[in-house]
């Protein structure tokens, strides 16, 4: 299926791009990235209430090179997926990642994590989030910090506040003190702190100021050491807000420790995610010890697993329509 044209449809956020590319890479190397831009009021209204037309998209669409497969993720991309199905019909296979929050029959297939709690004849469930990383990609990671690659590296990856979690001053202090405690307990370990796009600048400056003698901190300007961390770290400490980072680190089959951020409001969906990963022995809560022994969980490569299921179903569907 390498000659297929695959359109990936998102709002441009990194988490969504990683998911759509993760799946698309298993179908083709001919991938077109479409950042969906909607006119008002479509830009603010949940899909399903307004009709779709070509002119509601403010970005140009090259329909001369129409897609064979359209993989979408996120609310805004739902409109474009529905529009493509409307004008192309059975000439395009539409796959939506995450709960679209409209009728699943608007798509050929829906791929959603178990913690979304949805089901249907065309729904395929994943463990955690899909991602775009491969073993080869990680093996080829640039050596951002070559002087420490042979050391025992513990990577601390910081997320940020979202609709479910807070990441405030006191939370930052709690994590900083925990890192200092672990550094004193394991003085030979290198603690590498990496911020994400969602990490508040003032919060991150606290880590820079207070951990300058305890950790190596990425300044946010040099090449991103994320892949370096996936390759060389012996274990990870992750904040509880990011299902994407947790799922990506689970690809490495290394110990993952979760630092719980305080809830803004309790989320059954997030609790279900963390319970699932904990029950699968993928993650464990960050306490006062770091065990670096081999983990018992299997490498989490949901994009590959689900692509196999999708290919089988697509073939079955074509055979049935003959």
Q: Which CATH first-tier class of the largest domain would you pick? A: Alpha Beta
Structural class: alpha/beta
Spans of at least 5 consecutive residues whose pLDDT stays below 50 are: none
CATH topology of the largest domain: the name is Rossmann fold
Strand order of the largest sheet: 2-1-3-4-5-6
C-alpha Rg, in Å? Answer: 21 Å
CATH superfamily of the largest domain: Glycogen Phosphorylase B
Structure annotation, total helices: 9
SSE succession: EHEEHEEEHEHEHEHEHEHEH
Question: Based on CA inertia axes, which overall geometry fits?
Answer: elongated
**Number of distinct beta strands:** 12
What number of structural domains do the residues give?
2
The name of the CATH architecture of the largest domain is 3-Layer(aba) Sandwich
Query: In percent, how helical is the residue content?
Result: 25-40%
Percent of residues in beta strands: 15-25%
Give your account of this protein's structure.
The protein has helices at 14-24, 75-88, 135-139, 169-185, 201-210, 226-232, 243-249, 268-279, 302-321; strands spanning 5-10, 30-35, 69-73, 93-97, 109-113, 123-126, 152-157, 189-194, 216-217, 233-239, 256-259, 283-285. With 322 residues, it is α/β, with parallel strands linked by helices. The strands form two sheets. A six-stranded parallel beta sheet has the order 2-1-3-4-5-6, sandwiched between helices. α1 (14-24) crosses α9 and α4 packs parallel to α5 (201-210). The longest helix is centred in the last third of the chain and has 20 residues, at 302-321.
């Amino acid at each position: 299926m390498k000659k297929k044209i695959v359109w990936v449809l998102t709002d441009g956020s990194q988490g969504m791009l990683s998911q759509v590319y993760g799946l698309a890479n298993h179908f083709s190397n001919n991938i077109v990235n479409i950042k969906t831009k909607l006119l008002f009021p479509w830009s603010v209204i949940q899909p399903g209430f307004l009709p779709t037309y070509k002119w509601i998209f403010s970005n140009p669409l090259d329909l001369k090179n129409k897609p064979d497969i359209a993989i979408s993720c996120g609310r805004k991309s739902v409109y474009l997926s529905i529009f493509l199905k409307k004008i192309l019909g059975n000439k395009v296979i539409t796959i939506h990642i995450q709960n679209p929050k409209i009728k699943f029959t608007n798509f050929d297939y829906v791929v959603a994590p178990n913690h979304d709690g949805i089901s249907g004849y065309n729904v395929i469930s994943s463990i955690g989030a899909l991602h775009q990383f491969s073993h080869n990609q990680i093996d080829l990671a640039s050596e951002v910090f070559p002087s420490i690659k042979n050391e025992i590296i513990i990577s601390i990856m910081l997320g940020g506040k979202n609709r479910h979690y807070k990441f405030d001053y006191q939370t930052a202090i709690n994590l900083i003190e925990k890192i200092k405690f672990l550094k004193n307990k394991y003085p030979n370990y290198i603690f590498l702190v990496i911020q994400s796009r969602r990490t508040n600048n003032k919060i991150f400056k606290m880590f820079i100021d207070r951990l300058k003698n305890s950790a190596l901190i990425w300044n946010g300007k040099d090449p991103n050491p994320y892949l370096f961390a996936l390759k060389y770290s012996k274990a990870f400490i992750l904040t509880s807000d990011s299902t994407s980072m947790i799922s990506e680190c689970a690809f490495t089959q290394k110990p993952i420790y979760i630092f719980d951020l305080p809830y803004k409001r309790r989320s059954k969906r997030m609790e279900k995610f963390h319970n699932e990963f904990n029950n699968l022995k993928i993650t464990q809560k960050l306490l006062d010890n770091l065990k670096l022994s081999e983990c018992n969980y299997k490498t989490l490569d949901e994009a590959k697993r689900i692509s196999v299921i999708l290919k089988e179903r697509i073939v079955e569907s074509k055979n049935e329509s003959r």
